[in-house]
Specification:
The protein is α+β, with helices and mostly antiparallel strands.
């Protein structure tokens, strides 16, 4: 990938599926992410350059396989996109091919990372950053930090493993998404490099383009559960294809097909309007994907009963992970934010 021209090698879905289906035993998601990167699957088409749908299909494919892996994969690929968009210094951008990146921008109350000048004139980080998925295994991280008195964050890049850095995963108690290895990272004089100017991370077009891409991950997880219901109906003898299960499959189809259509439409809109504010587009697909995931969880669980939750490890893990992952949504606050966006339009975009 070239940080200046935004070029990126294509990842074939067939090739990605083949790597995902490899027998890696009990390998943790971080190790599997490393393998995806080593085999050339770590770079996706960049958003808003005509191939956004391809990017999201790859994210959904990984998510349908393993949501914890998808969380790390999305963070890595998002970091590469951000470095390109904000034209990161050559010393940072040049390390992307072999590095494992995390993107950590959540701001937990009372855990703001401060930027202070170092004795050599460079930047030094102090404080704590919560919700750092994959931090223990990442080689590099992109995170938001704050200059003294600033009202907007500064995005910085760090090299993991510095002596002034401590990674603590003890606070993460969730059963769902446990393998994403979310941690709190403490910084004590850790050197960092600025990526863009203060506020650039939030105000760039790619912020909401990337936010919409997360919905593709949620959709991939919901699709995996929907496929389990479809397979159960398909394998059942005709006399066991009960109206109850068929109705559940029909309702699952409606929400998954509808969300997939919204994601395709959103990808096309972003490619057509690469510099536009995609906030309303992202909020729409995120809220649709969250609602669809909730519906699929309910319908599939009711239709299949306890058996797959108890005897199918992949299904049970997906059913536990998905409710945690979709909580990245801000629920009713995002509904209100979408309504606010629409209230500023002369005509709502609802025509066929």
């Amino acid at each position: 990938m070239n940080a200046r021209d935004g070029s990126c090698g294509a990842v074939s879905l067939a090739g990605l599926r083949a790597v995902l289906q490899e027998d890696v035993g009990a390998a943790a998601p971080a190790a599997r992410l490393r393998r995806l990167i080593d085999l050339g699957c770590g770079e996706l088409p960049l958003p808003a350059l005509g191939r956004t749908a391809e990017r999201w299909r790859a994210l959904a494919e990984v998510a349908a396989h393993d949501l914890s892996l998808a969380k790390l994969y999305e963070g890595h690929t998002d970091a590469l996109a951000i470095l390109c968009e904000l034209r990161a210094p050559d010393g940072i951008a040049g390390s992307t091919r072999t590095s494992v990146w995390g993107t950590w921008a959540a701001e937990a109350p009372g855990q703001r990372v401060a930027i202070r000048p170092g004795a050599d004139g460079g930047l030094r980080l102090h404080g704590q950053k919560a919700w750092c998925s994959g931090a223990e295994q990442a080689s590099h991280g992109l995170l938001t930090a704050w200059h003294s008195g600033a009202d907007v964050p500064q995005l910085v890049a760090v090299e993991m493993g510095h002596p002034g850095m401590r990674v603590d995963g003890e606070a993460w108690q969730a059963v769902g998404m446990a393998a994403s290895a979310s941690a709190t990272v403490s910084f004590d004089g850790v050197p960092a490099a600025a990526v863009g100017e203060p506020g650039d991370y939030l105000h760039r077009p790619g912020f909401w383009q990337g936010g919409a891409g997360v919905a593709a991950c949620w959709h991939g997880g919901a699709t995996a559960l929907g496929r389990a219901l479809h397979a159960a109906v398909l394998r059942a003898p005709a006399e066991q294809r009960t109206p109850f299960r068929l109705a559940a499959l029909g309702r699952v189809d409606l929400c998954l097909a509808g969300t997939a259509a919204l994601l395709r439409d959103a990808a096309q809109w972003i490619d057509t309007h690469p510099q536009a504010d995609a906030r309303w587009v992202a909020l729409r697909v995120r809220q649709a994907a969250e609602a669809c995931a909730q519906t699929v969880l309910e319908e599939v669980g009711r239709a299949l009963g306890a058996t797959p939750f108890c005897r199918d490890a992949a299904f049970a893990r997906m059913a536990a992970d998905l409710p945690v992952f979709i909580r990245q949504s801000h629920a009713a606050r995002d509904d209100a934010a979408l309504g606010e966006c629409l209230a500023g339009l002369e005509e709502p975009p609802w025509t066929i």
